[in-house]
Amino acid sequence: MRKMNMIVAMDTEGGIGKNGVLPWRIRKDMQYFAAVTKKVSDPAKRNAVLMGRKCWESIPESRRPLPGRLNIVLSRQLEKQNTDNLIVVNSLESALKLLSEAPFVDSIETIWNIGGAEIYDLALRENLVDEIHLTRIHKNFEADVHLKSLDFNKLKKIIDAEASSENSELFEENGLQFEIGKWKIIEHC
Where's the DHFR domain (predicted)? Predict the structure, then answer.
């Protein structure tokens, strides 16, 4: 099965959501998310963003599907769909099987797991994640959704030419301190 990268923002307690939305508003994090999930080395390809139904529904209707990427939504409730920019499937296994076959195996460069918690946890448990792009927000938002299976003892922070500017600084926006980092899984969670 194809491996994927994961991109997530979380608070000091591993919180990633509250009342169906992100509990913070950080423009730099949103810009980073868009840039990273769209970036390809081969201009003939694009990336896929893989998400659960709740994550899909948290995106304002006017902004979905996320532009410039193939949006794959995992849902047992939504009706199956297959358009140029949106595919709805009923399982992670179905999504990865689809992305491992023509035409997607040749046209999708990177699969990005964008959540939510169930999709993150499942991919981590199944050892399907290669890299994690993580925004760590230095505040507890008393979230009602948490990322449970991320173990920092099994990760190594990557500092390379591409990520060094994001890895070396602590940022502040809207009174919130946060850092953006790129991590490699060295031992599966």
Answer: 3-185
Cβ atoms 45, 170 nearer than 8 A: no
How many other C-beta atoms lie within 10 A of the C-beta of residue 152? 11
Q: Considering only 21-35, 81-95, 157-171, which range has the smallest mean pLDDT?
A: 157-171
Average pLDDT, the chain: 92
Residue 10 burial by Cβ neighbours in a 10 Å radius (0-12, 13-18, 19+) = buried
Considering the domain 4-185 in this protein, what is its CATH number? 3.40.430.10
Mapped onto helix, strand or coil, the DSSP state of residue 113 is: strand
Every domain of the chain and the residues it spans: 4-185
Q: How far apart are CA 7 and CA 26, in angstroms?
A: 15
Which DSSP category does 21 fall into? B
What are 86-92's contacts with CB under 8 Å, separation 24+? 92/50, 92/119, 92/122, 92/123, 92/126, 92/128
Confidence band, pLDDT 50/70/90 cuts, at residue 54: very high
Name the pairing type of β-strands 15-17 and 145-146. antiparallel
- The per-residue pLDDT for 79 is 83
183 torsion bin: left (phi>0), alpha (psi -120 to 50), beta (else): beta
